[in-house]
């Protein structure tokens, strides 16, 4: 148990409201809030008092899409659960939901046991799991029910990566039908992988092997087509809830918006890389573009306005990172001469909260919307609310004291992710995490790491609480 903590003088920001309030923490939870200077607040005492005058007090971020130690393309994501969750804390994120990989031909349980072994005792912050379904069959469909009962309440399917994670429409339909019965949320990587593989083969045969062609062959129309198909399959399965991960293209967003206009439980996630980076980065010379290879790919800059609009209109509900880092040296370099061999993924778990605060400064979103898309909605979407994602009596004391005026320059020299480059190298942003509590325990204190591996606990999740 943590000692009693009092956070005084800050502006408390949640998705619902902004209030000048002191926050009292006891036994790892928020005990009470009271207005500055009120008799209630003045009567509080605590063993630890944090001065948040002139700062924001916000809920710890919830990153619903990470890949720590993920196997891909003959290598592994460079962040372990220890390094990745520590970096998340540095960036003001106090909960991650990582993806368990099921190997083809193997039970879901085997993958889950492997991920528990990777994470247990190593995490600086709390964590949960989604399950990747790589092999949909009668046995794994039955296992889905068991996993939902144990708090693994979301299942990811891939329309991309034939021969690795790909599921055909029949398998997707069967999994969706099962999720409709057990309450699970279907998450979809929506790209037409069969068509993309044809375009990859044609590009390489024509000598187009540089990283920029990764973006050119993974066409926006093929993301839109797969998104449309996923939505129709979800309707056929009984209008089951559907969550489209890493939406990058205006055309795919239009499919989601249209479905939502019809009242369907279709949700969309985008990521900072699609909001702040573009195909200009993929085209950087001397193979530097490999740093920005991820799937779905970066798009031309014109798509960014549509994504910001989607976040403002709630056609996109969540910003996660899809944090899946590979070092440039020795990992991204596996694809020199063949862009299809570049490991797909980018680092970002440490940068999300700061980049989204920059979006507040730039006028793209409001402060409350910042907290909604980064904290509250992912907690609700993945069955963690109100323990996570808000500041209210009874909630976990996952709290961030945030300095909205501090300036910083994002760089690999100063970040804490276990990767040798920053996707945002040299970018100046306004706003910086100062102090982070996880269940009332300091993890970052006055810009110093004071946490420890093993503090973070596994979170069994409820079913999605975010339905139309």
Task: Name the overall outline.
Answer: globular
Number of strands: 19
CATH superfamily of the domain at 60-381: Metal-dependent hydrolases
- The number of helical runs is 14
What's the helical proportion of residues?
A: 25-40%
Quote the distance from N terminus to C terminus.
Answer: 38 Å
Reported CATH architecture of the domain at 60-381: Alpha-Beta Barrel
Brief account:
The protein is of the alpha/beta class. It has 14 helices and 19 strands. It is globular.
Question: What this model shows, in words?
Answer:
The protein has 468 residues and is an alpha/beta fold. The protein has a domain at 60-381: Metal-dependent hydrolases (TIM Barrel). The protein has helices at residues 39-42, 81-90, 108-119, 138-149, 169-182, 193-205, 212-217, 220-236, 250-261, 272-276, 279-282, 303-313, 352-361, 367-381; strands at 5-8, 11-13, 18-26, 29-35, 48-51, 56-59, 61-66, 71-72, 75-76, 93-101, 126-132, 154-158, 185-189, 242-244, 266-270, 318-319, 399-409, 428-438, 441-444. A hairpin with a 4-residue loop joins strand 2 and strand 3 (18-26). The longest helix has 17 residues, at 220-236. It is globular. The model has no long low-confidence stretch (mean pLDDT 97).
């Amino acid at each position: 148990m943590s000692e009693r903590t009092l956070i005084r003088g800050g502006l408390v920001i949640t998705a619902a409201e902004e209030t000048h309030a002191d926050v009292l923490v006891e036994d790892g939870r928020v005990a009470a809030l009271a207005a500055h200077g009120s008799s209630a607040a003045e009567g509080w005492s605590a063993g630890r008092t944090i001065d948040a005058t002139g700062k924001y007090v916000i809920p710890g971020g919830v990153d619903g899409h990470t890949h720590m130690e993920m196997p891909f393309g003959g290598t592994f994501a460079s962040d372990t659960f220890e390094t990745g969750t520590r970096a998340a804390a540095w960036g003001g994120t106090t909960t991650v939901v990582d993806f368990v990989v099921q190997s083809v031909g193997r039970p879901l349980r085997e993958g889950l046991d492997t991920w528990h072994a990777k994470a247990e005792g190593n995490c600086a912050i709390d964590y949960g799991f989604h399950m990747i379904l790589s092999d949909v069959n009668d046995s794994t469909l039955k296992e889905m029910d068991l996993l939902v009962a144990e708090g693994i309440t979301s299942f990811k399917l891939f329309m991309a990566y034939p021969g690795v994670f790909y599921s055909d429409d029949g398998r997707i339909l069967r999994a969706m039908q099962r999720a409709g019965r057990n309450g699970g949320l279907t998450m979809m990587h929506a790209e037409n992988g069969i068509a993309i593989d044809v375009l990859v083969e044609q590009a390489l045969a024509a000598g187009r092997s540089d990283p920029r062609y990764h973006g050119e062959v993974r066409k926006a129309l093929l993301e839109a087509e797969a998104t449309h198909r996923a939505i129709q399959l979800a309707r056929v399965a009984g209008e089951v809830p559907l969550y489209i991960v890493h939406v990058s293209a205006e055309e795919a967003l239009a499919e989601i918006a249209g479905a939502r206009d019809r009242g369907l439980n279709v949700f969309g996630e985008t990521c900072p890389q699609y909001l702040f980076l573009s195909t200009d980065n993929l085209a950087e010379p001397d193979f530097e573009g490999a740093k920005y290879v991820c799937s779905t790919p970066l798009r031309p800059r014109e798509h960014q306005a549509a994504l910001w609009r989607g976040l403002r209109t709630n056609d996109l509900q969540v910003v996660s990172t899809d944090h899946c880092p590979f070092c440039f040296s020795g990992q991204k370099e596996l694809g020199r001469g063949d862009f299809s061999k570049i490991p797909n993924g980018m680092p970002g778990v440490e940068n999300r909260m700061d980049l989204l605060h920059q979006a507040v400064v730039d006028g793209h979103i409001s402060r409350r919307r910042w907290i909604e898309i980064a904290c509250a909605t992912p907690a609700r979407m993945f069955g963690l609310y109100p323990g996570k994602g808000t500041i209210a009596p009874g909630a976990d004391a996952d709290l961030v004291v945030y300095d909205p005026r501090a300036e910083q320059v994002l760089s690999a020299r100063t970040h804490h992710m276990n990767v040798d480059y920053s996707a945002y190298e040299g970018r100046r942003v306004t706003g910086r995490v100062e102090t982070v509590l996880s269940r009332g325990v300091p993890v970052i204190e006055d810009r110093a790491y004071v946490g420890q591996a093993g503090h973070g606990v596994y979170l069994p999740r409820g079913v999605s609480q975010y339905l139309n």
